[in-house]
Design a protein that fits this description.
Largest sheet: none
Strand content: under 5%
Number of helices: 5
Structural class: mainly alpha
Shape: elongated
Length: 118
Amino acid sequence: MQKVLSRWQDGLTLIVGIWLFVSPAVLGFGESEPVTWAALGIGAVLMIVALLSLATAKLWEEWLMVAAGLVLVCAPWIFGFAAIQAAVISFVICGIAAIALSVWRIYRDSHGQEASHA
């Protein structure tokens, strides 16, 4: 239980993924196919990887969430839905959150490993 509690960042990333998955319906931009597919796809990736990270805590999972966060930040311009303001705000905030939470875990885990070897 202690390990799971120490991975609260992955729990928050799971919530970010859930939000992305439901955001087209909640924010009303579900009529646009590119934004809907991007939200569903990237949201699903974040949810799955966050669940894996909660269970196994591998470094590659954190880096995959960083990559997903970068895609989220750039997605409105990559997939052509930058004119949908609600989607842009949601994607950029979720992307920054995913990046920050994963980098926090990467830093904390690497810092903890260094301290345990000293």
